[in-house]
Amino acid sequence: MSLLDIKGLSYVAGDKKILDGFSMTIEDSEVHALLGTNGTGKSTLAYLVMGCEGYRPTSGEIVFYGNLINDLKIHERAQLGITMAWQEPVRFEGISVRDYITLKKTDVDPAHSLEMVGLHPELYLHRMVDKSLSGGERKRIELASILALHPKLAILDEPDSGIDMLSTQDIVNVINAFKEHGSSVLLITHREEIVIIADKASQICNGKVICSGNPSKVAEYYKSRKCLVCNGEVCAYV
Amino acid sequence: MSELNALMKAFGEAGGDKAILENNEIAHIAVDGHKLLSMNSVEGLVVDAKETMTGISAKVTVIEGIKIKNPVHLCFGVLHKKGTQKIKMDVRLEKNSSAHFIAHCVFPNAEKVRHIMDAVVDIGEGAEMRYSETHYHGLYGGIEVIPKSVVKIGKNGRYFTDFTLTTGRVGKLGMDYSVEAGENAVTELTARVFGHANDDINIKEKVVLSGKNSRSIIKTRVAIEDDAQAEVTGITEGNAEGARGHVDCMEIVKDRAIAKAIPIVNVTNPLAKVTHEAAIGSVDKRQVETLMAHGLTPEEAVDIIVKGILK
Question: What is the rounded CA–CA span in Å between residue A72 and residue A59?
Answer without folding.
Answer: 15
